[in-house]
Amino acid sequence: GPYMIKAAPLPDSPFYEFVENGLDLTFEVCAFEKIEIYIDVLCFVPDVYELFGFFWFEITEITVREMCFFGDVCIDWWLNEMDVPLWAWVEYENYYQNQMNGIQSDMPAIITLVLFKMVDGQYEQVKFWTNDNWDYPGEGEPLCIRYADYDNETDEFKLELYIYGPWFFNTNDVFGYTQGQPEHTWYFTDNADVLDLNEDGVVEFAWGDCVQDPEYHLPVIN
């Protein structure tokens, strides 16, 4: 229809995590005094609001955005760059063994994505997502993230990509994530759609040379 609808999500709803100023509210009504009440509402299209009466609402307009990520890992990269032999992928326990087709030269990437938002001049962590706990880790569908974008503000974000792999071959751990040292970092303002170079709704990358012309060929060589 022609009318846009905004709504404050219920506490048990999936979108409640994006709300900072929600209901229920307790306040005292005093004669000839105005009370200012802050309520967050969510929408997908900007709308307008009005001030009214002795009570008025200052609405924080939020758009919930979504972006999906899918990648490939090329095990030859670890062989050529880190001297990780091919047998290590089979002999040492790791999540890639739990994929439907097991260990291959080109496998769906098992990843963790960590989102940060600029607050008072510093990036603060918002949330993280991973596909390493799926029935078939990293496999079957992209890893999608959702985050809150404040419509009337310019929000600055940083998204860190961590790829699960045999980064610690010379230690007892062998497989894991390089905590605090992301394999790639994206910076964007408000809408992560700018990361989607093919404009198909999925950010695609390859770690190594086993995929032809990926959107993001990693690692980036400076």
Would you kindly provide a written description of the structure presented here, covering whatever features stand out?
A hairpin with a 5-residue loop joins strand 8 and strand 9. The protein folds into two domains: 14-62, no CATH class; 65-218, no CATH class. By secondary structure, the chain is mostly beta strands. Residues 44-57 have low confidence and may be disordered. It has two helices and twelve strands; from the N terminus they run E-E-H-H-E-E-E-E-E-E-E-E-E-E. 6% of the residues lie in helices and 40% in strands. It is elongated, with a radius of gyration of 22 Å.
Question: Secondary structure elements and their pairing?
Answer:
Blueprint lengths: L34 E9 L11 E20 H8 L3 H6 L14 E3 L2 E9 L2 E9 L12 E8 L5 E8 L1 E4 L5 E3 L7 E6 L12 E6 L8 E3 L4
Parallel strand pairs: 1-2, 2-11, 11-12
Antiparallel strand pairs: 2-3, 2-6, 4-5, 4-7, 7-10, 8-9
